[in-house]
Write a structure and sequence with these properties.
Layout lengths: L3 H21 L8 H13 L2 H4 L22 H13 L7 H18 L6 E2 L4 E2 L10 H21 L2 H12 L1 H8 L7
Antiparallel strand pairs: 1-2
Helix pairs in contact: 1-2, 1-5, 1-6, 2-5, 4-5
Length: 186
């Protein structure tokens, strides 16, 4: 499990991705209210799998369901993402659902490297890379890299991504990687 701060940070990145997708599909509506709503729901969805487990209707606020079970089930989040994407422009709830699903999936991706894993289909699967709370900077960095690339594609026609690739080509490490047999960045 990533830390709470990592889930919040990746939720912001998921919100940006959802907003970009809504804007790209033209489902933002007048004054881009839908785009902002998708962004906010992405932030909320970034922590949703954890807070959906809490029994808010009781005084003790204990978990009503075991941690990393139904609320962390990958198929449910993927189904919500698929439905919301295909319903953009035709259903009122598609925009907030897309943001919420993007945040929820980002949460699962942040939890996946942990040895406890995430129940993607039937059983739990783990990448088993590091323990909880470790290497959060990698998770957050990858989430924001994805948000940068999607946002750059939608709003700036990939110009910043191309500049970044050209910059990496000028680095000495790039030439060393090519000599070592790795493919060149194109």
């Amino acid at each position: 499990m990533a830390s709470s701060k990592a889930h919040h940070a990746t939720g912001w990145a998921a919100g940006l991705i959802a907003a970009a997708v809504v804007a790209h599909e033209g489902a933002g509506g007048s004054y881009h209210i839908g785009t902002m709503f998708a962004f906010c729901m992405g932030i909320l969805g970034g922590t949703a799998p954890d807070w959906l487990e809490v029994a808010w209707w009781t005084r003790r606020r204990r978990l009503w369901i075991t941690h990393r079970t139904l609320t962390h089930w990958g198929v449910g989040w993927l189904a919500l993402l698929y439905w919301s994407y295909t319903s953009l422009g035709t259903h009122l709830m598609a925009v907030p659902a897309l943001g919420f699903a993007a945040g929820g999936l980002m949460h699962l991706l942040a939890d996946w490297p942990n040895p406890l894993g995430v129940p993607w289909i039937a059983g739990r699967h783990s990448l088993n890379l590091w323990n909880s709370g470790r290497c959060d900077i990698i998770i957050v960095g990858l989430a924001w890299l994805a948000a940068f690339m999607v946002g750059d594609h939608v709003w700036f026609d990939d110009i910043h991504t191309l500049h970044a690739i050209n910059f990496v080509r000028t680095l000495p490490i790039h030439a060393w990687l090519i000599r070592a047999g790795y493919p060149a960045l194109s």
